[in-house]
Design a protein that fits this description.
The protein has 402 residues and is α+β, with helices and mostly antiparallel strands. It has 14 helices and 12 strands.
Amino acid sequence: MPASTRLWANAAYKPFTLAALRTVGWVEFGVFIVTILLGGSMPAAAHTQSTAFLTLRVRDATIDGEWHLALRDLEDAIGLDANEDGLITWDELRSRKEAVSAYAFSRLHIQSDAGQGILRMQDLLVDNHSDGAYAVLHFGVEGLGSPTALQVGYQAFFEIDPKHRGLLRLECGGSRSLAVFSPETSTQRFELRADRPTRIPFLSFVQQGIGHIWCGYDHILFLLALLLPGVLRRRDGAWEPVLAARPAVSNILKIVTAFTVAHSITLSLAALGAVRPPTRMIESAIAASVILAALNNLAPFWSENGWMIAFGFGLVHGFGFANALRDLGLQHAQIALPLVGFNLGVELGQLAIVSLFLPLALSLRRVLFYPRILLPLGSTVIMVISATWLTERVLNFKWLPF
């Protein structure tokens, strides 16, 4: 019997009819379609982290700062590429020194009980981070006396990228405080005590882990590419439903767990400095991994043990956030808690996706529409979006000449 005839004849399947849809539910069906096709509206820069690194040092009545701002972010905000050749030179950056200073200091407010601090530029330099070139602003803060507490307001780049994050390291004597600024936490207060132990905002890193999944659209598409066949099995060259719910649930949990374990391994290794691949190369590899995961649904080259694919490609995805932690300049002992918080957030974000996906997939798996149309259509959409990301990342690989 031809495979197509066998599929229709298999009692495990319900024909794609209005009656079948009424059994599943129109609402569930619609939500599932929207979930799969949501990637069509996702921005191309799906995994590029917009991050700035701010250090404030308090020494008695003296406060000085160092602020690393990505040139690509400054280009978007105020324009640096005068001749529009796609490269930003030192002369172009230097000619915009006043504009850089005006933009940055209008979006950073530091105050104490004595009043509002006045920020004065001392020097403008350039430094290379793992994800490209950054302008480095050295500045002093005047008018705060000898503060016992500081309130820091951070608004840089939020108007052009709500996913931007400002990572702060505040040093006072032997004490350090770490903070993550986002549109929701743009103003924070810090007590200044030289004998205070390092303050690490654990919950902030948990939130960053959740946001890394939900705002990292390539992570979402990668998970969907792996989860789509999670309630199916490959037999005689075709996909068919897993009849019992327990094996399907077990398979999906294995996939998510394998991805989390792999993600955690490389995130930890990269953050601790054991390995340091270039961010632009990793971003391209992440896009390629999404393409391969979706392609495996259309022309399976590995139809069994999907958790192994999740683990293998998860090793690549783990580098996604590590560079930001390392570039903040944390010591190894200080990285442990942020790593735990971030990984917990990643797991919670993934579980939220699975909790939305799994009930719908289980309801639809026996409808012929799922393996015959939804699986290939969803996988094709994922491939097209990821191919667009890969092309743009490869073309933009060389951004800056210094």
